Every structure is written in C-alpha cells, then in structure tokens.
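This part of the workshop introduces the protein records we will be handling. An example says more than a description, so a record of this kind follows.
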Amino acid sequence: MKKSINVVVVILALTSCVGQKKYNELQSNYGACESELQVMERAKTDADNSILVLETNLGNAESKVNSLEQQLDYFRSTNTDLLARLSDLAVVSKTGAESIKKSLEALNEQNKYIKDLTSTMQRKDSLNLVLVMNLKRSLADFDDEDINIEVKKGVVYVSISDKMLFQSGSYQISNRAKEVIGKIASIVNDHNQLDILVEGHTDHVPIANECMVDNWDLSVKRATSIVRLMQTEFGVAPERMTAGGRSEYLPKATNETVAGRALNRRTEIVILPKLDEFFELLTPPDPISSNE
C-alpha cells in the first residue's frame, strides 16, 4: 500500500513538472505573439498613416493638375486670341504701309511737279525779260505812243495802234507797218519754242461797207493780214501762229472819248509758250489711287 502511494506521488510530481513546463512554454509563446501583434498593429497604423499622407498628396497633386490644366486652357485661349490679333495687325500694318507708300509716292510726284513748274516758270520769266528787252531795242526807232510792249498774265504783249498799221476802216498794211512787223518776226524766229497769237481789236463805232460786214469782220481781217505777212515775207512758220478778232468787246479804255477809242483800235501780237506744252505744264500728275 505504501509503495502504491509513492508511485502516485511520483506520477503526480512528474505530471506537475510537465504541466508547468508546458505552461511556461505557452506563456512564452503567448508573449511573443502578443509582441508580434503589437508590432504588426504599429506597422498597420504606420501603413494607414502613410496611406493617408499618400492620399492627401495625391489629392493635392490632382488639385495642382487641375489648376495647371485650367491655366493651360487659359494660355491656349489667350494665345489663339493673340495670334488672331497679330494676324489682323499684320494685315492692317501691311495695308497701312501700302497706303503710306502710295501717299509718299503721290507727294513726291506733286513735289516734283511743283519743282518742275517753278523751274519752268522761272525760265519763262527770264525768257520774257529777254524778249521785252530785245523787242524794245529793236523797235526803239518807232514812236512809243504807237507801240506798247509789256508782260501780262505771264506772256509778252506787243500792242500796235491801228494808225501805224492800217488806214481807217481798212485791213491793208502800210509800208511803215511792214518794217515794224519784220523786226518783230525776226525776234520771233529766234525763239522757235514760242507761239504767236495775233488779235485784232476795234472801237465801238459800227462799220459797214462792201468789204466788211461789221467790226468782227474788220478785227479778224486785220489779224489775218498780219499773220499772212509774217508767214509770206518774214518766214514765220504758220503752224506757230493763230489769228483772231475780238471786235470791240475787249477795250483798253472808254469808247466815249476820242483818245479812248484810239487806244481801243489796235492789233496785239501775243508771244506765248506753245499751247500744247503750256497746257501740259499746267496739268498736275494724276494722284495715285489708294485703291490700287
């Protein structure tokens, strides 16, 4: 009986020893697991925090991307507007430049025309002065009351009284008159660039005979007599001359006095530039059209 009790005690002791060891081992494993769990929980917490940071950063990045896209859209729109404006400005500038160029060309043409006209007028004035001096020198032997030489309206006028040229109511030229016309023709022939206009003038006293119908007729026939004489006897080219009658309608003085009527009965020889060249000189160049 005592032996059996001892065996039981030994078994209980062994059993007690094995359980405590196992317990301690389990306790140790539990502690390790708990520590590992804590590590994993901390890792999870860190991961969650990292995810939050990443999500926040991603949200910020997406916000920046949206902002940049909006700015990009704005810049694209602005750039398109600028390109359109630059295109319009280029067109306007080109058109404006062409307009300015044409305006300058027109101004240059006008300036050239004015300079040429001024130069020509100066030459003409100088020529008129020479003509007047030569005519007065050549006709110095004749009575100044019967011949008047002057510059009017830019041309030279030689006015000769009818008593020196014709008998009363006649268009037949006197011998004395032929000498005067010859001297004038000689000077005219020295200047082939000039034309001659011969005008007959009368007073207001009517004339009517078998040779003349009225004062128109008389004034024209006196002018043609002078032109014919200058052509046939003094060699003035006929294409340079024009004959015309003014009758009584361009008086120099009143027709109510004897002296006035004497002044009105006259023949005027007008020495002037060739008409075609004269009119061409007075015509300014055509302005350059801005529509071209």
User: Anything to note?
Assistant: The beta strands are 147-152, 155-161, 194-201, 241-245, 266-273.
